[in-house]
Design a protein that fits this description.
There is one protein chain. By secondary structure, the chain is α+β, with helices and mostly antiparallel strands. 24% of the residues lie in helices and 42% in strands. A hairpin with a 5-residue loop joins strand 1 and strand 2. The longest helix has 34 residues.
Length: 173
């Protein structure tokens, strides 16, 4: 007569298999979320190149949607931005303004691609993108925005050149 595992051992084996599958699924989810985050923001760590005492360069890679997205430090807080040459000023989503230490200033009417809206003037005291440092940048706190739009109130202080899927941004010292 052959010996068969008892029901308890079979049950334990099934439980262990399910736990292993859940752990594997969790690891795969974590891995692929990292891949998606990198595809959306390939510039999570921005590296600077200071080739002389005259300027600092950073290079942004275009994301899979064709936009230049990066991570900067706004008033000491890390935040993701989208480069937007069509925005007059830096546009900060209302839900992020408090965590970035921004105070609502004068109420203004703004025109966006979605029509007219109300915003509030504010100022970013310090902005760091890699080793590029800027101070006292005009910004607008805006409703109905999901991400920071890095507009011309920043870009007017910099020089930028696009080649292929890379954008080189230069700050003269």
């Amino acid at each position: 007569m052959a010996h068969h595992p008892d029901a308890g051992t079979k049950k334990l084996g099934v439980v262990m298999m399910v736990i292993s599958m859940l752990i594997g699924l969790g690891l795969l989810t974590h891995f692929f979320q990292g891949v998606l985050d990198t595809q959306n923001n390939p510039n999570q760590q921005i590296h600077s190149i200071q080739t002389s005492n005259q300027y600092i360069d950073i290079i942004l890679k275009r994301n899979r949607s064709g936009h230049y997205v990066g991570t900067g430090i706004f008033n000491g807080h890390k935040a993701v931005f989208l480069l937007d040459t069509g925005a007059t000023a830096v546009a900060i989503p209302a839900h992020m303004a408090k965590q970035l230490g921004l105070k609502k200033g004068q109420r203004i009417t703004i025109s966006t691609a979605n029509g007219r809206s109300t915003g509030y003037q504010t100022q970013i005291n310090t902005l760091d993108i890699g080793q590029i440092h800027l101070n006292n940048i005009k910004a607008i706190i805006t409703p109905n925005l999901e991400e920071i739009l890095l507009g011309m109130s920043v870009l007017k202080h910099l020089e930028f050149t696009q080649r292929g899927d890379q954008l080189t941004i230069r700050q003269y010292l």
